[in-house]
TrEMBL record, chain A:
It comes from Natronoglomus mannanivorans. It comes from the Archaea. Pfam families: Trm112p (PF03966). PANTHER family: PROTEIN PREY, MITOCHONDRIAL (PTHR33505:SF4), ZGC:162634 (PTHR33505). This is Methytransferase partner Trm112.
UniProtKB/TrEMBL annotation, chain B:
This is Methyltransferase domain-containing protein. SUPFAM superfamilies: S-adenosyl-L-methionine-dependent methyltransferases. InterPro entries: Methyltransf_11 (IPR013216), MPBQ/MSBQ_MT (IPR044649), SAM-dependent_MTases_sf (IPR029063), SAM_MPBQ_MSBQ_MT (IPR031164). CDD domains: AdoMet_MTases (cd02440). One of its GO terms (molecular function) is 2-methyl-6-phytyl-1,4-benzoquinone methyltransferase activity. Keywords: Methyltransferase, Transferase.
Length: 66, 208
């Protein structure tokens, strides 16, 4: 994902801003390939996996008991 | 209430459906119907347009949107469906992909000119709540377009359909979109020649 995407992303739970942590960029430096998006309000953490932000609420992620 | 209105079941269902989805899909939702639906929208300048495809799945609707705009923001809950879309468009191409929940969108208020969703509403647990989320992320005056199934009688899923999906008519669609706060709500029936009203397309606008 592009870093500029942060301007329109928010926490799916409380709609507050997200902060980027532990970002790794591709060779050109214009795409984030991994990192974590952290909600500035509730602290929920959303991983960036191979450049795709996983913004599923925690109850819908893989491995979550039904 | 269908069994897919439980999201865990929806996830498992899609894991298996994604292996055959593009083969099933043309029977109920083809390129001609997609073109008809796209013609109902007013797209801004292709370079600047902010367009979101909710429940993009394997990317059939996304491909149509890319005929009108340079970039599409796309969201789906299912990694297995998205894998097919990645194969079509690449992970770092004209589509900005996100995994997420239609009912709890991870996008800021007043962001998009157009929110599109085809073949997704039938799996939403609470359609009005999801449509309210669409209205929230639309700019004032922005357009929503949702394609969903009407009557299962003429689809290949006819036996299962009623048990697992939401079906609705134009009265129900009208109620849902107006309750969610949309204005200028209009409905069009679409389908292949042998079944011309298999899909209902609803458009509306977020209030100015």
């Amino acid at each position: 994902m592009k870093e500029s995407l942060l301007e329109i992303l928010c926490c799916p739970l409380d709609k507050h801003d997200l902060e980027l942590e532990d970002a790794e960029y591709d060779d050109d430096g214009d795409e984030i390939v991994s990192g974590t998006l952290v909600c500035t309000e509730c602290g929920e953490r959303y991983p960036i996996e191979d450049g795709i932000p996983n913004l599923l609420p925690p109850d819908m992620r893989e491995g979550t008991p039904a | 209430m269908g069994i897919l209105e439980n999201k865990t079941r929806a996830r498992v269902f899609y894991k298996y459906l994604s292996t055959v989805y593009d083969r099933i899909n043309p029977f109920i939702w083809n390129e001609e119907m997609r073109a008809d639906a796209l013609s109902l929208l007013d797209f801004p300048d292709p370079e600047e347009a902010m367009v979101l495809d909710v429940g993009c799945g394997t990317g059939f609707g996304t491909a149509g949107l890319l005929e009108h705009v340079d970039t599409v923001y796309a969201l789906d809950q299912s990694e297995h469906q998205l894998e097919k879309a990645y194969a079509k468009f690449g992970k770092r191409g004209p589509v900005a992909f996100h995994r997420g929940d239609a009912e709890r969108l991870p996008f800021a208020t007043d962001t998009f000119d157009v929110v599109w969703s085809s073949g997704s509403i039938e799996y939403w647990p609470d359609p009005v709540r999801t449509l309210r989320e669409f209205r929230r992320v639309l700019k004032p005056g922005g357009q929503v377009l949702v394609v969903g199934p009407t009557n299962p009688e003429n689809t290949i899923t006819q036996k299962l359909a009623d048990a697992i999906m939401l079906f609705y008519d134009e009265y129900e669609a009208d109620r849902m979109f107006k309750t969610a706060g949309f204005e200028d709500v209009k409905h069009t029936f679409m389908g292949p020649s042998y079944s011309p009203d298999v899909a209902i397309t609803t458009i509306g606008r977020a209030p100015e």
